[in-house]
Design a protein that fits this description.
The structure is a single chain. The protein is an alpha+beta fold. It has two domains: 94 residues, no CATH class; 230 residues, Endonuclease/exonuclease/phosphatase (Deoxyribonuclease I, Chain A), CATH 3.60.10. The protein is built from six helices and 22 strands. Strands 6, 7, 8, 9, 10, 17, 18 and 21 form an eight-stranded mixed β-sheet that branches. The chain has a six-stranded mixed β-sheet with strand order 11-12-13-14-16-15, with helices on one face. A hairpin with a 2-residue loop joins strand 19 and strand 20. Helix 1 packs across helix 6 and helix 4 runs parallel beside helix 5. The longest helix has 20 residues. The radius of gyration is 21 Å and the shape is globular.
């Protein structure tokens, strides 16, 4: 059994190479800017609830001011590790595989593209996180969940989500975010799809998101992250869309600051980005469209396609599809503060 958490801001008493008393030999430590990751191996025979409280107690003893810092659980739940001698792929095969895709549909214009786009999507994935989508979008018999409309274009939406499994749209406050709870056979999860600002988007972007490109990016990220956190209520999250931000290689569209902030937001939500090294429409440039899945889930290589009809591209963005295996999850209630206090005393 493993427990993963992050502690922010990074403290000198818990950094790569420094092993706290709560840890045991063989535990792994890593870090990214502003956040310390800790993954602790836990005995299988201890009750997870009490053990979580004991862990917090130990960390509190190491640093008396920890109560003034945020302890952010990277995984929303404890997860079972594969039994000794069992391959991870064998363990994960007991879950239900799903194919997750993201694609900027280029507003479905000209209209001849729409039928070809729908045919491609119906073949390639079970869950689509779509951007620049028109109101007439439909994949088979599945009605999408849409974000708000683009200004002055009631038939055009920033984002949309389509699923072969039943889903319930979740309300959003920010117009460029779409969310839905997906009723998957292995348990419900939250799907989120975003569009982030590009440098010339000032006239289209909500006025409350700032006056400069940097401000719009920061405000959009903060608002989307906050809404996803509130809507997930402990559910696994799959987040994708057009972030207008490469996450590796030279930065040609977004910014280095934006890259770091977006990566940290994924970490705060317990997500792993599978498209970091994927290429864009130009194979020599990195993708600005991304898919992030829970860190505990396994994935295969991302398939990057540039669909055509005859010699004409169906979009100015590639489609990205990843096959995912859901890890077994144990959902636990929040740790009662009284239990932590009793252990501390």
């Amino acid at each position: 059994m493993t427990l993963s958490l992050a502690i922010s801001p990074m403290e000198p008493w818990l950094r790569p190479g420094v092993i706290p008393r709560a840890a045991k030999p063989g535990n792994r430590f890593s870090a990214c800017p502003g956040v310390t990751f800790v993954t602790l191996a836990l005995p299988q025979n201890l009750e997870a609830l009490a053990l979580s409280s004991l862990l917090l107690w130990n960390l509190g003893g190491l640093c008396p001011t920890i109560r003034d810092h945020r302890i952010e659980f990277i995984m929303a739940s404890l997860s079972n590790s594969p039994p000794a001698g069992t391959a991870a792929s064998d363990h994960l095969s007991r879950g239900m595989r799903l194919r997750v895709g993201t694609w900027n549909l280029d507003r479905g214009e000209p209209r001849w593209q729409r039928a070809h786009q729908a045919a491609h999507m119906s073949r390639e994935a079970d869950l689509w996180l779509l951007t620049a989508a028109c109101s007439q979008l439909q994949i088979g018999n599945h009605k999408p969940a849409f974000s708000g409309s683009r200004p002055g274009e009631n038939d055009q939406h920033w984002a949309a989500i389509s699923s072969t499994w039943p889903m319930k749209p979740a309300p959003t406050a920010h117009p460029s975010l779409a969310m839905a709870r997906i009723s998957h056979p292995e348990g419900t999860f939250l799907a989120a799809c975003s569009v982030f600002p590009w440098r010339t988007a000032a006239e289209l972007w909500p006025s409350g998101d700032g006056d400069s490109f940097a401000e719009r990016c920061a405000q959009t990220l903060a608002k989307h992250t906050r809404e996803i956190m509130r809507a997930s209520i402990g559910l696994p999250v799959v987040w994708g869309g057009d972030f207008n931000q490469a996450l590796s290689g030279p930065e040609l569209v977004g910014s280095d600051v934006g890259r770091g902030a977006l990566l940290e937001a994924f970490v705060r939500l317990g997500l792993r980005v599978v498209t970091v090294e994927a290429n864009g429409q130009d194979p020599h440039q990195r993708s600005i469209d991304h898919i992030a899945i829970p860190s505990a889930w396994s994935s295969r290589v991302v398939t990057v396609q540039r669909p055509r009809s005859d010699t004409r591209f169906l979009s100015d963005h590639p489609s990205y599809v990843v096959s995912v295996d859901r890890a077994s999850e144990i959902r636990r209630p929040p740790i009662p503060l009284g239990l932590v206090a009793s252990l501390k005393s």
